[in-house]
Amino acid sequence: MNRIEAVRKLLSNNEAALIFTPVSRLYLSGFHSSLGYLFITKGEAVLFVDGRYIEAAKKGVNENVEVRLFTNISEQAKEFLGDKIDTLVVETIIAVANVTTFEKQFGKKILPNSELDKELYSLRSVKNEYEIECITKAQRMAEKAFLEVLNFIREGVTEIQIAAELEYRMKLAGSKAPSFGTIVVSGEKSSMPHGVPDDKVVRAGDFITMDFGAIYKGYHSDMTRTVAVGYATDEMQKVYNTVLNANLSAFDAVREGAFIKDVDLAARNVIKQAGYGEFFTHSTGHGVGLENHETPTVSYKNENKLLSNQVITIEPGIYLEGKFGVRIEDMAVVTKNGCNNLTKAEKSLIII
Ligand SMILES: [Mn+2]
To answer: How far apart are CA 174 and CA 169, in angstroms?
Structure first.
């Protein structure tokens, strides 16, 4: 269904939607701006932007959205909305301070509505061809950077240097910015799933976990690889192969109509059977798109079924405090009979 129409369906006759978050504005209008007001009424969809964006907005916006320059948003919005509209429906992420500001600015009641959130999240979770193409391009940028960085990693370099190289090389490949704070953790620190890279020096016998992504046209990628420096002990290899098998088992469970919890459990059971169940401390994955984490959450608690063209990550891990951690993360597009793995980088253990 048309995205604007889907929002319209949620509105009563006295209501308009005010889309104020940059991500939802981009999703619904086709245009990204840091500031802007997208009003959706029963009959119209108007994006108000200021002079910094007007030229680009006119070129970039979807054809079912009208662009207007605002100089005094309060006056112009009141004129556009008229007296019939007395309520503006907004996403529930709105800050309390903004409710007051908007009420004053627009002279309407502000109504945060979780139905609007739900509708947008569920629409966004199923990608169209263009969106999959953008995510794939972002992923290619990240992979290119990964392959290049393998040549940079050696004993003596620091985590933050590896993170900087990854981010720099993704940017050179065309990424707008890192998808999220790049994670590079090594040795004992690799047992922290979301550890922060610092000046820790990489040593022989370290695992290095790198979790990173690129952004193309607003769409994110997300991948994780764990590599060993110099050598990997038997225990390191055992844990690595367990995580790899968990990753592959989860992939086998992905297809349209499959229960999402079964994808998580496919990975979780492999890890449990190897005796590491308690050390897999997060969900198997999540949706990826205009944000790095979106619906669906690939968790054993998720009772929903997978839909074709959802893009999800598969990222099991084992984290042994005081020793090391391993995570292997790919992105998959759900298809009728299985999935397409968007992540082409090698998954078997790389020892540098
Ligand atoms: Mn992820």
So the answer is: 9
300 Cα to the center of ligand 1, angstroms: 16
Q: Which CATH architecture group holds 3-124?
A: 3-Layer(aba) Sandwich (3.40)
CA of 83 to the centre of ligand 1 (A): 46
Summarised one tens digit per residue, pLDDT across range 213-266 is 999 999 999 999 999 999 999 999 999 999 999 999 999 999 999 999 999 999
Cβ atoms of residues 224 and 247 within 8 Å? no
Q: How far is the CA of 6 from the centre of ligand 1 (A)?
A: 28
Cβ atoms of 47 and 67 closer than 8 Å: yes
Q: Is the pTM of this model over 0.85?
A: yes
> In the chain, what are the domain boundaries?
3-124, 126-341
State the fold for domain 126-341: Creatine Amidinohydrolase (3.90.230)
Question: pLDDT tens digit string along 285-318?
Answer: 999 999 999 999 999 999 999 999 999 999 999 9
**C-alpha closest to that of 247 among 348, 175, 177, 160:** 348
